[in-house]
Amino acid sequence: MKPIRLDKLLGEMGAGTRSQIKEMAKKGRIRVNGQTEKKADRKIDQDADLVEIDGKPVVYEAFEYYLMNKPSGVISATEDSRHTTVLDLLPQAKRKDLFPVGRLDIDTEGLLLITNDGALAHRLLSPKKHVDKVYLASLKGTLPTDAVSQVKEGLILEDGTKTLPADLEILHEEKGTCQIRLTLHEGKFHQVKRMAIALGCEVTYLKRLSMGPLTLDEGLKPGESRPLTLEERKKLMVEEDDHEQDISR
Ligand code: URA
User: Fold this and answer.
1) I need a labelling partner for 130 at 20 to 30 A (CA). Which of 53, 55, 190, 222 fits?
2) Rounded-to-integer distance, Cα 110 and Cα 221, Å
3) Are 170 and 199 spatial neighbours (Cβ–Cβ below 8 Å)?
């Protein structure tokens, strides 16, 4: 990793603004490799130098990755003047440059990846990569008897576009309502809701269960999140690379 200025490193790790950090340095609260460091603009080698504030080590992380169980009523954006955003639900995040990877509607729950790794987000969202997304939905209405094969063929949406072949599993049907699991290999705007309409139904509840190799952690209540495990991070990197090769073949 390239050396980074001490104040930039501490700012990115959420220690304060540049002027607050300068002040901390002046007061002798910052140490580098055990020595008090008063120059906030000195360069730091993140791999070799130990930085401490008030005796507590500050570990630099260029990227953060969180798995959130997005609750209904919260928007998938970085800021909003009217609604709570998914980032408002992540006070433990250090970095200020995090964003949600793709969007879930305000009334959709479930798996949302939040990171500042733009290259990963690009790969996961690229229409060429066909990253699988699995949704659980409750529908109002009665599905046509050939719904599974219609979805497998691809549905014509209200604007005339056709969906890629997808997998529909009917989990439960009862008196004009049903519960389905839908696996999509693309991510059109409001896709599940529009597919439901194309089948003569209406979504009354929607939850994303997985995206690529990431699966919603059932231990996370709506609104809760946790950092990705090392295992999950590895899977994301490896599976995305594999997928890239598959598609380019
Ligand atoms: N499809 C939708 O209709 N809404 C979502 O939030 C996600 C997929």
Assistant:
1) 222
2) 9
3) no
Task: Pick the closest to residue 10 from 22, 1, 26 (CA basis).
Answer: 22
End-to-end CA distance of the chain: 33
User: Residue 6 and residue 20: Cα distance in Å, rounded?
Assistant: 13
Whose C-alpha lies nearest to ligand 1, atom 2?
Answer: 190
Q: Considering the entire predicted model, what is its pTM? A: 0.87
56-111 per-position pLDDT tens digit = 999 888 899 999 999 999 999 999 999 999 999 998 898 989 999 999 999 999 99
Whole-number pLDDT of residue 242: 56
Task: Please work out whether the CB of residue 22 comes within 6 Å of at least one atom of ligand 1.
Answer: no
Secondary structure (H, E, C), 57-116? ECCCCCCCEEEEEECCCCECCCCCCCCCEHHHHCCCCCCCCCEECCCCCCCEEEEEEEEC
Is 97 considered catalytic here? no
Candidate list 7, 47, 49, 105, residue with the active-site label? 105
Helix or strand holding residue 9 (H, E): helix 6-12
According to DSSP, the residues that pair with 194 across neighbouring strands are none
Residue 125 Cα to ligand 1 midpoint, Å, equals 14
Counting ligand 1 atoms within 8 A of each CB, the residue from 113, 157, 190 with the most, and so the one to mutate, is 190
Please give the share of the chain, as a percent, with pLDDT higher than 90. Answer: 85
105 Cβ below 6 A of ligand 1: yes
Measuring from atom 7 of ligand 1, which residue has the nearest CA? 104
Tokens of 166: 């997808």
